[in-house]
Queue: 3 jobs
Job 1
Amino acid sequence: MSVYFEKSYQRGFGTYPLKGEPLKAAVREAITVGYRAFDTAQMYGNEAETGEALAESGLARDELCITTKVHPDNYSEEAFLPSVEASLKALRESGGAKTGHGSGGIVLPRAE
């Protein structure tokens, strides 16, 4: 599977195991020192808080690279795309996920 990005980021900020205000404070500090790539996962249970903190940052969406991972319980054909859609909603992304791109990848549209 491939995911395609327009930009390359040299360092990423991992959000595990943070939640709540400690997560939001850490994201704010990470942005202050220059992080623009953020990693979360369904399994971490912090996608919504990560999305909220990034939205509150005031950074333009095209300045961010947000990575999440699907929980193994959602690997089935019936559960996979609905779980990705739920992640996109939690992360405050719009447009939904599309499968394909000629290589079996998932293309996640950028929020406008």
Note: Confidence is low (pLDDT under 50) at residues 98-105.
Job 2
Amino acid sequence: MTTRRDVEGTLARWFAVDADSHIGVFTGPYAAWPASVFDDYQAVDAADAFLASAPPTTEAILSARWRESGASPTIPSLEASCGLYSFDADPGYGGQTVYYLDASPVRPLREPEAPPILRRAARLVCFPSIRFATVVQIDLSGLVPIVIGDG
């Protein structure tokens, strides 16, 4: 079984569904991750691979925070152009629990319309009280059980 330590320090991603059935993608090489991601990490890994080669379906809007950072827009723009809200823990050392919105899709992908592998991975983490379209950050503390690596 894959554990948090197995993916620590990598650009591996996890997925979640919000109150509006929109899908978010989260990157945090050393950040805390929801424990439920590891209930079916095979699906998460397959969804990550699928996303890496998925064609764009919409435009991406970079967050003000991301634009001000001067960082390359490549990864969050690619994720958002596939209809997903892109979040990052920046870089998440020490098990940071806060993820920041990096980019939003103009037309968000809804979970019922997503490819099966994205639906399967996203359903592992549900945020019924959060709307990705209205947040600039999400703190996992108290929302879901989390796991932290060694970073």
Note: The radius of gyration is 14 Å.
Job 3
Amino acid sequence: MDRPSQIHVTDAPEDPAAQAEALRPSLVRLGAAVTGDLETGRDLAQEAYLALARRDDVRDPEAWLRRVVVNQARSWVRRQSRHRSYLSRWERWRLERADQLGGADLADQLAVREALSRLSAQHRAVLVLRFYDDLSVPQIASTLGVAEGTVKSRLHRGLARMKEAVDADD
């Protein structure tokens, strides 16, 4: 019995890697459509190709790449929404706090903000979670996925660096 002949598109590359590469514009559009940002779409497509290069067990590279881009885009959107939500809460808190405090405390607020900005992201995160969000050391450790001892040392060092920064400005 004769097998039906397969139809080949003449302009489609035969090499699987070339076929996957030809999919790049589609992946960029997919990532950009989900995230709403063209540059992020490009980044997601590139990350998907890098992930594919580390794998040798992918049977359908096109479907796999699309799935990876969608999953990464959804994660990106979730991170952005959490970030926007946090900034929104921070701004509301800051405005409420500014209304409660008098103008004399504004200089102190600015000094604290400046000192915080000079810290590493790790120290800043621990200090904000402790003193602005009023979380306990175990809660901070759980939130950041680090040991309680790490939280304590970052609190200690962060406060010491803030004190140095504020004292240097006086």
Note: Residues 61-100 form the longest helix (40 residues).
